[in-house]
Structure to design on (244 residues):
């Protein structure tokens, strides 16, 4: 088997694309995390240890990405206290993250996008970096996070992430600009896959060095994502009892 990063003929491993920690955080006492898609006819599936691909990376290359994965988990899976909250007219609208390493965090998102794009796993079939795939790989190999606007990353967080499931990542557009959207334990990461600049409403929100991250809060129950997931769950339950 050929490792997709080093291109050497080596034994490949069960390589996680979204790190296991993000799925571990979703576990309840009795239920393992579920993966969901809004594709017609697809039902939720259990993913106790997350989702891995056995055809992309050798152990050495997977370990090369580990510091970036670990830093992303440290930054995003922390306890978001009121000290980090941003209010407008007494309403909490965002969180502020000042303690992070731009290079490590940006390289995580670059490697996340690349891994998802090259994966043949069904969960990642709606993600594609297209002509940017080789550029992403070169940035990983050279450990170059690039300037902030290159594959710019914007983060949002659900204000009430009470479910134990995760939607599949997919392509998206904002004001005609191409993005890929990833779900990471209550977070939504929007990664720009476009040579054009970010949309105007994102110009103060994308990941930059020496600038605190503003993580916009979203209401899960009233968001499009929440509506999709609840509709999937309703259909799944209805199908279960119909077939019982």
């Amino acid at each position: 088997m050929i490792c997709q990063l080093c291109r050497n003929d080596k034994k490949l491993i069960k390589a996680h694309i979204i790190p296991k920690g993000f799925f571990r955080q979703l576990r309840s006492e009795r239920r393992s995390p579920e993966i969901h898609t809004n594709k017609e006819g697809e039902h939720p599936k259990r993913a106790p240890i997350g989702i891995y691909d056995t055809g992309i990376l050798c152990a050495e290359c997977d370990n090369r990405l580990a510091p970036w994965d670990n830093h992303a988990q440290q930054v995003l899976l922390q306890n978001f206290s009121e000290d980090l909250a941003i209010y407008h007219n007494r309403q909490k609208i965002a969180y502020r993250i000042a303690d992070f390493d731009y290079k490590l965090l940006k390289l995580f998102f670059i490697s996340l996008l690349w891994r998802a794009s090259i994966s043949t796993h069904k969960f990642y079939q709606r993600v594609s970096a297209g002509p940017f795939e080789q550029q992403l790989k070169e940035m990983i190999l050279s450990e170059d996070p690039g300037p902030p606007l290159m594959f710019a990353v914007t983060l949002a967080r659900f204000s009430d992430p009470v479910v134990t499931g995760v939607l599949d990542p997919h392509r998206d557009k904002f004001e005609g600009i191409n993005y890929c959207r990833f779900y990471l334990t209550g977070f939504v990461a929007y990664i720009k896959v476009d040579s054009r600049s970010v949309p105007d409403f994102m110009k103060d929100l994308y990941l930059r060095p020496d600038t605190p991250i503003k993580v916009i809060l979203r209401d899960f129950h009233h968001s499009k994502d929440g509506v999709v997931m609840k509709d999937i769950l309703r259909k799944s339950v209805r199908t279960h009892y119909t077939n019982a």
Remarks:
- The two ends are 43 Å apart (CA to CA).
